[in-house]
Amino acid sequence: MARRMAHGAVFAVAALALAVAWTPPAAAQERGTDAGWTNVVDGMRHFTGLVCPDTLATLNRTRVLVGSADRLAGCVYQNAEGISAVLRSHPSGTGEQAARSFRDRFRAAGFKLVATSGAAASGISFLTGRRGTSDRCETLWRFRNGTADYTLWISYALPDEADEIGPLVTAFAGLLASR
Hints:
Elements: H1 2-21, H2 25-31, E1 37-40, E2 43-46, E3 51-53, E4 55-56, E5 59-65, E6 73-78, E7 84-90, H3 95-108, E8 112-114, E9 124-131, E10 134-145, E11 148-158, H4 162-177
Antiparallel strand pairs: 1-2, 2-3, 4-5, 5-6, 6-7, 7-11, 8-9, 9-10, 10-11
């Protein structure tokens, strides 16, 4: 009997620990406890200063990202047409290395580096597959604002969504310039 009670107690403690440890991301974001993020009017702010508005141009923020050794914080955006974007902040002086790593990883994966036009021409672009009848393109831009480094990754369809990229990059650049 004592053994069954002990086994039951261990199970109850384990279940409680799991329930407390697992918090749905949306609930964590609402409370502002998701690794340094707090709610601000119309968005979220990371303690490092990165602000991610709820909407930016045609994109809606779908989540915020925690940091790692080479990335401080980030935001994920998407729109109804299927364009996805990730804005990341990096430790000062590491943006160039982040861009090089992106290029090297995509080349190593066998994706084709492409020359693009418009706003995409200032980034590093790869064709990464097909989306319907279009080519899927992924482009990474590097920004620096004072002592902060940022990268912006956007996935979009060519040629269908090429005209939408310029206004998106301009919107993100304006957001970063205002910090």
